[in-house]
Backbone:
């Protein structure tokens, strides 16, 4: 089986999410400074960030935790020709879960819902890693 560029598109979509969060973080920080709820100096060490921008900041940090394993497995599957429609579907599901997780994080920030979405995405990612291990073991 030849690798498919379809494995790369979910990675590009996740990177787009990260940039959207950076833009949102910048907008919320500027708004907090303009509203007098924060000073520019507060953002040097992020010790006292207003809640609305803190939620975005935390969501952005989350995009460099579990998703690191996502990008690695996607590249490994692509390089070993282990990608297939099912695993590409799992990759898209993971990205969708990260988008929903980020949306919850920057809006209501309800842990009850965030956790469910996180676990669903983590499960999909786990399946991708299991498939990679099987693919390498059997080929």
Residues:
């Amino acid at each position: 089986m030849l690798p498919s560029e379809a494995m790369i598109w979910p990675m590009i979509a996740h990177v787009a999410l990260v940039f959207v969060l950076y833009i949102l973080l910048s907008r919320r920080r500027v708004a907090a400074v303009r509203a007098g709820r924060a000073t520019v100096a507060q953002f040097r060490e992020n010790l006292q960030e207003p809640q609305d921008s803190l939620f975005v900041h935390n969501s952005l940090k989350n995009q460099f935790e579990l998703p690191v394993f996502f990008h690695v497995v996607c590249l490994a599957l692509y390089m070993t020709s282990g990608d297939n429609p099912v695993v590409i579907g799992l990759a898209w599901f993971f990205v969708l879960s990260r988008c929903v997780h980020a949306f919850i994080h920057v809006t209501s920030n309800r842990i009850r819902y965030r956790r469910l979405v996180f676990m669903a995405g983590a499960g999909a990612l786990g399946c991708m890693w299991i498939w990679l291990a099987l693919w390498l073991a059997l080929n």
About this structure: The first helix runs from residue 9 to 34. Residues 5-138 form a domain with the Four Helix Bundle (Hemerythrin (Met), subunit A) fold (CATH 1.20.120.550).
